[in-house]
Amino acid sequence: MLEKRVLAALVVHDLRSPLCAVQGYLSLLREELGDLPPAARSYLDDAELLLGKALGLVATILDVDELEDGMLRADKAPVRLVELIERARAGNRAHFEVRQLSCDVDVDPEMTVEIDRDLFGRVIENMLDNATRYAPRGGRGSIAARRDAGGVEIAIGNSGPPVPEAERDKIFGRYFQVERRRASARANRGLGLYFCKLAVEAHGGTIHVEQRGDLGAVFVVRLPP
Fold this sequence. Notes:
7 strands
């Protein structure tokens, strides 16, 4: 196990350096080109968003180990939740377009939550990525958030098939994959949902999956008041 962690750390370091370099070059390119046509500016925006997403995935590998060991703690500050949601939607725009998905958003634009912007931003990204990955073509995604006496609830789901009850706890394991879904979606043996579980727990919250009406798989995060 220790050898695997050391290897993962080396791989992450080797991946992060060129990705950060590309990020720097994109920033320089934007400055050098100055005023750009809307289409070109949109391409650059998308490239920077996707690169940021790639860097977030790389960071997740290390963060999982640190969260497991209790070394990484949530650095909470007031954050407008809609900012993280819009960033996650922009990063998944290609999935929505290619799979012809609609997305309902029910979030108060002024809703502020005490969270770690970076950690929780990646929780939202992973949840939305999961929702788009397993939604049927032409299906529907949903993002909702509300505050009540018990705290804050954030629910992100899709109109795809429900997660079998026997697997609803297991999917948050380190490498678990719902085998029945593999044939209908791109294989993903990553740490996404496991990272979400650890990051949410670092905020004192919980995460689970359930079925709500026509939404077969809804991932629900509960944060304390």
